[in-house]
Amino acid sequence: MGYTGHGGRRFGRPGGWQQADTPDASDASEWFAGRLPEDWFTGPATVVVDREEIVVTGELPAPEENSQAAVDGRISRFRETTRPDRMRIADEAEARYGRKVAWGVTVGERHVLFTHLAVPVMTRLRQPERRVLDTLVDAGVARSRADALTWAVKLAGEHSEQWLSELREAMGRVDELRSEGPNI
After folding, report:
1. Helix (H), strand (E), coil (C) string for 41-101
2. By the 8 A CB rule, do 42 and 26 touch?
3. CA-CA 20 to 30 A from 163: which of 8, 81, 127, 153?
4. If the chain, 184 residues long, is cut into consecutive pieces of 10 residues, what is the mean pLDDT of each piece?
């Protein structure tokens, strides 16, 4: 049994205190599948949920002329013509899930996210970790410690995506088992 703090709130996964009052979004993919117009994307949309944001991405058909300008035009047209509907759907989802909604599209190899969140993250680092960041700044790889940390997180994510995917799947299974257990 986990430690229970003031008010009977359990600490630890899932999400800790940051998610204490955030609605469950485990059905977000299904909700968006039922809510999105069928003619927007060539297949089902991808829905990725974290603590602050839901990102909905769909694939657009490639233009006949597959130049960079034609792809840019296809993306711009989708963004402009669907804006009122996307905003209405986002408002409904934000009310339902308590998270902001961002949109993105893929055309061939090109992936574009429209307005999406950049969330500040606070951390405490000891001198060896700070020296890593300062080296990246001093070498001109990053403009600041914050940029260096962003660079390091992206690099770690690129080189460990399979491991992170397996870890996310395992955490999901733990959450399922926890929800099936007794509620004490």
Report:
1. CCCCCEEEECCCEEEEEEECCCCCCCCHHHHHHHHHHHHHHHHHHHHHHHHHHHHHHCCEE
2. no
3. 127
4. 40 47 88 96 95 95 90 95 96 95 94 86 87 89 90 85 83 84 76
| Per-residue model confidence as pLDDT tens digits over 66-118 | 899 999 999 999 999 999 999 999 999 999 999 999 999 999 889 999 988 78
Q: How many CA atoms lie within 13 A of 100 on its CB side?
A: 10
> Shortest CA distance to 103 belongs to which of 130, 85, 120, 119?
85
Edge-to-edge strand list for the sheet holding 100-107: 46-49, 53-59, 100-107, 110-113
Give pairs for 60-66: CB < 8 Å, separation 24+: 60/105, 60/106, 60/107, 61/107, 62/107, 62/108, 63/107, 66/108
At 110 the three-state DSSP class reads: strand
